[in-house]
């Protein structure tokens, strides 16, 4: 009986792994219709008795502004072009910081954030972390860096019910994402650690200072020239190549 149960369990896990791999591969070309985080926020609003309208408009890579692309990289993951989903140096630094006590520090790359936002629930647990590692690996294997950043900028949360660069630009500045100034792009990137509490339209002193730091970091990374590193170097037949 135990062997039968284990056999069925492993078979079910195999089916789930295959289905998740096919899903990630399909999303290499298809715009995600939504994300797990969007569903979670909608359910939370219903439970709280204050339903919210989700705002999101998909924009392809070519329509997303370069200043926002580099601002997000400078703010969230400066080794984005170099790693394969995990920044081991940042993870070690975060673990050392957390062991000393005080506020918890994360070390999630943009790839990990896409995996969490798109497929997983909020919270901290070992099962969730294991699934995050699995989906991050699939994303890095099947998608190009450009695709990862494209999906990130179209699914990241920028306020209550506001998801993606286009909705954020219209919500906070009343313009389309392609018209964002360098300052506006850096302010949007500056609030990403806490987008439901911090405002890019009415930034606090800390958010303004962080935005200034992000602009300096973006310039030091090479500005829009940094984005050239995100072009896929894999063969045309590989799933992650454009």
CATH top level label: Mainly Alpha
What is the terminal separation in angstroms? 49 Å
**What assembly state would you assign to the polypeptide chains in this entry?**
single chain
- Portion in beta strands: under 5%
- Profile the largest sheet: none
Radius of gyration: 19 Å
Helix tally equals: 10
Structural class: mainly alpha
> What is the H/E string?
HHHHHHHHHH
Could you name the CATH homologous superfamily?
Answer: Biosynthetic peptidoglycan transglycosylase-like
CATH architecture field: Orthogonal Bundle
Bin the helical content.
40-55%
Are there runs of 5+ residues with pLDDT below 50, and where? Answer: none
From the spread of the alpha carbons, the general shape counts as globular
Round the mean pLDDT to the nearest integer and report it: 90
Please indicate the count of domains: 1
The beta-strand count equals: 0
- The CATH topology assignment is Penicillin binding protein transpeptidase fold
Question: What does this entry look like structurally?
Answer:
With 242 residues, this protein is mostly helical. The protein has a single domain (34-230), classed as Penicillin binding protein transpeptidase fold (Orthogonal Bundle), CATH 1.10.3810. Helix content is 55%, strand content 0%. The chain has helices spanning 2-26, 36-47, 66-76, 88-99, 110-119, 126-142, 145-155, 165-173, 182-190, 205-221. The model has no long low-confidence stretch (mean pLDDT 90).
């Amino acid at each position: 009986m135990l062997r039968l149960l284990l056999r069925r369990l492993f078979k079910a896990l195999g089916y789930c792994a295959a289905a998740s791999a096919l899903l990630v591969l399909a999303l290499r070309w298809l715009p995600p219709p939504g994300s797990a985080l969007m569903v979670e926020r909608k359910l939370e609003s219903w439970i709280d008795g204050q339903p919210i309208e989700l705002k999101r408009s998909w924009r392809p890579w070519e329509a997303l502004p370069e200043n926002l692309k580099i601002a997000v990289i400078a703010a969230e993951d400066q080794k984005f072009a170099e790693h394969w989903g995990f920044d081991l140096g940042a993870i070690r630094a975060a673990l050392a910081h957390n062991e000393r006590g005080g506020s918890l520090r994360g070390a999630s790359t943009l790839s990990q954030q896409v995996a969490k936002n798109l497929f997983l629930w909020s919270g901290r647990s070992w099962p969730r972390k294991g699934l995050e590692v699995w989906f991050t690996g699939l994303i890095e294997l099947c998608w190009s860096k450009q695709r990862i950043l494209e999906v990130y900028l179209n699914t990241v949360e920028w306020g209550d019910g506001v998801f993606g660069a286009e909705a954020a630009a219209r919500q906070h500045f009343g313009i389309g994402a392609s018209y964002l100034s360098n300052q506006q792009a850096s302010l949007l990137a500056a609030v990403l650690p806490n987008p439901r509490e911090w405002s890019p339209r009415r930034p606090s002193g800390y958010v303004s200072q962080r935005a200034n730091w992000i602009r300096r970091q973006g310039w030091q990374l090479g500005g829009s020239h940094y984005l050239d590193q995100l072009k896929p170097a894999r063969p045309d037949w590989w799933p992650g190549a454009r």
